[in-house]
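User: Could you go from structure to sequence for me? I need the amino acid at each position, not a summary. Structure tokens:
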């Protein structure tokens, strides 16, 4: 991560992922970044997500909600905020991968927006008032999507965070298919 980060944090209960970015210049298409969470079952931590949470949705059990959703980046401070209530998740859920994807309305080979073209990006992960990780997307300028956090549950039921930014060149549909795949 390019700004400040922390190592693995354990024993997490309720965390907030907050995303910010600058609006696009006047007369150009709006920058629209979205936070996505993929939830995996404990029996298949790297397989197909049990469910996805993104703009316009929430987890079926109400433990992951998108509290604020921006389509333009206009506003003060953080434009999108997602809350994960890890302590309330069912025991059969063992991993949550959180990512950010750029919504680009152009055709697949006509995609033009990457993190390099979106100013003022920032991401903050915190529990209560304690910042667990703070970063931006400067380290992955050519990417169109990125994973930013991985929460895993250990055998005792405690949740931990690994905050690492990994870039992808994928549209939103492709990204949700590959965001939780184990790195080689």
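Assistant: Here is the amino acid at each position, in order:
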């Amino acid at each position: 991560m390019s700004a400040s980060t922390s190592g693995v944090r354990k024993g997490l209960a309720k965390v907030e992922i907050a995303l910010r970015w600058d609006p696009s210049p006047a007369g150009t298409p709006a920058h629209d970044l979205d936070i996505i969470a993929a939830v995996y079952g404990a029996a298949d931590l790297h397989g197909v997500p049990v469910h996805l949470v993104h703009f316009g949705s929430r987890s079926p059990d109400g433990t992951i909600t998108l509290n604020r959703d921006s389509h333009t980046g206009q506003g003060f401070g953080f434009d999108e905020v997602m809350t994960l209530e890890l302590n309330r998740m069912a025991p059969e859920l063992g991993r949550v991968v959180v990512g950010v994807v750029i919504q680009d309305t152009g055709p697949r080979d006509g995609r033009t927006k990457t993190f390099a073209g979106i100013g003022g990006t920032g991401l903050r992960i915190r529990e209560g008032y304690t910042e667990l990780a703070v970063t931006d997307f400067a380290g992955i300028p050519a990417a169109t999507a990125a994973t930013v956090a991985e929460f895993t549950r250990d055998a005792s039921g405690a949740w931990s965070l690994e905050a690492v930014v990994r870039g992808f060149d994928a549209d939103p549909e492709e990204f949700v298919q590959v965001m939780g795949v184990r790195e080689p």
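One structural detail worth keeping in mind: The longest helix spans residues 172-178.
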